[in-house]
Amino acid sequence: MADELTPAVPDDAATAAVPETESEEPIKKRKNGLYPGVSDELAENMKSGWADTELHDLRPIAQAAETAARRAALSARFPGERLVIPAGNLKTRSNDTEYAFRASVEYAYLTGNQTEDGVLVLEPVADGHKATIYLLPRSDRENGEFWLSGQGELWVGRRHSLAEAAQLHGIPAADVRELAATLREATGPVRVVRGYDAAIEAALTDKVTAERDAELRVFLSEARLVKDEFEIGELQKAVDSTVRGFEDVVRVLDKAQATSERYIEGTFFLRARVEGNDVGYGTIAAAGPHACTLHWVRNDGPVRAGDLLLLDAGVETHTYYTADVTRTLPIDGRFTEIQKKIYDAVYDAQEAGIAAVAPGGKYRDFHDAAQRVLAERIVEWGLVEGPVERVLELGLQRRWTLHGTGHMLGMDVHDCAAARVESYVDGTLEPGMVLTVEPGLYFQADDLTVPQEYRGIGVRIEDDILVTEDGNRNLSAALPRQSDEVESWMASLKG
Ligand SMILES: [Mn+2]
């Protein structure tokens, strides 16, 4: 981040230049100060000579109707209660630099807005709730905030005015700096989504309970189990970009061999940043035995011909929906015999898992179907003594299958994580749910219970599956999975 306009000066020079509005106001001063003193003439000069850039007649965001429907469902669930859903604040990375901001999924889901320090409040009124988004307004030119404060628009870029934000999101907007005082004075029952905004929680501390707040979080997690049309469209976009990212990686495998797994991670990241918002989670670019480390994100290892590359990566769209796709690819384009044997077993397990995804089916069914296939192969290969029923009953296959076979997918890669067991893991599949099916087999490099030729081979195949009215649709079907098709696909990209 370019910061060379900022001479190092004591903190008091900057704070003296910016009038305090109130003690918990969210404007953060640059910690290392701003200017070594501002002359009255310069301060006066900076107040004027700026064009009016207010935007009028903005079109609402594409998902405005969907976010309104989501707020209506929330309103119906908690009648008569004030509901507070913060976006969250910037987090310090070090000194005066911050991590890239990502709004809370609850806030983004209900508003479509992604601004730091934003808060959605649903205030109970006679016939339901009145929604307001509280945001930082445009920077004040009169008091110098726009150029003297660390969150001034001169430093961080133009914000939407409150009127613009209201038009875009279809929700009245108000100044967030007044919200804490408003909440402290509010009467009646209140719930807040915890963990995102300490100042807002502090203002509510004697009005809320952990148990009641948890019910709000659970509701908002379960509300996301079934995706609406807008969300399904976004997830398909995320997958389509991810498919292009995987193609990018295959095209540069030669360069990755000359450098490291980082070349693969970086190549995929380029696609994610150009077409989407970001990656939806840390890319796992695991070559050779690193594939056996489930969350291998160091990505600093060598990429060698003859080994497999396990690439688990997903593009996140501008509206925060992420894909979650894994392919295990022969780095030189051809599977060896043992690699293919293990790969095909995982493929068969995934096919069985996908076939078990259908409306009315139990969520657990696809996991059980995939695990059964893997257990059968493990017994067939003589790695563990049968019968298969005994292996499944004792879970002995798990030495090599390691993880569950999938999870809900959406704005979070592991979406709906606060949903109750009975509505998720012990629940029933419904049209509109999107989940991953991702069985794997992993033979650790130091696993003395398997023959030498298995050791260091890890395979996972992961696709993003939409539950439809009559079965399912594989959103990531554009990426080949079957071993022969993987080889010819790779050859076509490298040729
Ligand atoms: Mn996954």
Work out the helix count: 18
* Structural class estimated from helices and strands: alpha+beta
Helix content: 25-40%
Dominant shape: globular
β-strand number: 17
Query: What would the average pLDDT be, to the nearest integer?
Result: 93
Radius of gyration in whole Å, from Cα?
A: 26 Å
Distance between the termini: 40 Å
Describe the protein in words.
This protein is an alpha+beta fold and 495 residues long. Helix content is 37%, strand content 15%. It contains 18 helices and 17 strands. Strands 6-5-4-1-7 form a 5-stranded mixed β-sheet. It starts with 10 loop residues before the first helix and ends with a helix.
Name the features.
globular, 495 residues, alpha+beta, five-stranded mixed sheet, 18 helices, binds manganese (II) ion, three-stranded antiparallel sheet, single chain
Briefly characterize the structure.
This protein is of the alpha+beta class. It has helices spanning 11-17, 40-47, 64-77, 105-111, 145-148, 153-156, 162-169, 179-185, 198-203, 210-223, 229-251, 253-258, 261-275, 337-355, 365-380, 388-394, 398-401, 483-494; strands at residues 82-86, 92-94, 97-98, 119-125, 128-135, 173-175, 190-192, 278-279, 284-287, 308-313, 315-316, 325-330, 434-437, 440-443, 457-460, 463-468, 471-474. It has 18 helices and 17 strands.
Topology diagram in text:
Elements: H1 11-17, H2 40-47, H3 64-77, E1 82-86, E2 92-94, E3 97-98, H4 105-111, E4 119-125, E5 128-135, H5 145-148, H6 153-156, H7 162-169, E6 173-175, H8 179-185, E7 190-192, H9 198-203, H10 210-223, H11 229-251, H12 253-258, H13 261-275, E8 278-279, E9 284-287, E10 308-313, E11 315-316, E12 325-330, H14 337-355, H15 365-380, H16 388-394, H17 398-401, E13 434-437, E14 440-443, E15 457-460, E16 463-468, E17 471-474, H18 483-494
Parallel strand pairs: 1-7, 5-6
Antiparallel strand pairs: 1-4, 2-3, 4-5, 8-11, 9-10, 10-12, 13-16, 14-15, 16-17
The protein binds manganese (II) ion (MN).
